[in-house]
Design brief:
single chain, about 190 residues, alpha+beta, Ribosomal Protein S8, Chain: A, domain 1, 5-stranded mixed β-sheet, about 10% strand
Amino acid sequence: MMTGGKKNDTDSPDDARSFSDLADNIEDLERLEPGPRVSPEAPGNPRPESSAAGDASSPSSGAPGPELQFANPDEPLLGRRSSVRAREFNQLRRGHLDCTRKVDLHGADLASARRRVHAELAAAAQAGEACVLIVHGKGHHSPDGVARLREGLADWLREPALGRIVAACAPAQPRHGGRGALYVMLAR
């Protein structure tokens, strides 16, 4: 369970600055121009064959459908499917979802870390879990100081096998590992 927790003393001022830089690019939805309205019955927009009540890809389900969208190239681990509601995504980003599984990849090489991420996320999805915390580290102990596992995760989350089960992802809050960890919301 990932609620609360003590502050991680290894978080650097860079973590706060990175978050601040990321938050500066956020716009309120009320200030954005609305897009054109399209009738669901309009030609070229065929009605789905399944009913909305039984449709697994309804907006709140985060179910398989459109792939993860990563809007900010400066933050390759911040993304969601269009089917994930903004409120749910914000809860994930703020660390308010209960991550019942923690996957610690410290010390793993890229190949074994990839296998473990695939296996753990598949097992969590099979068990009906909503959120997984993946601790990949900040790269402080790598020879060149680069967080290779973080880079690997950015690639792995774009793979079709994970694309079917991952609904959203976001860097963790400092209390859960900051830029050395990742929240992953699973499709339901």
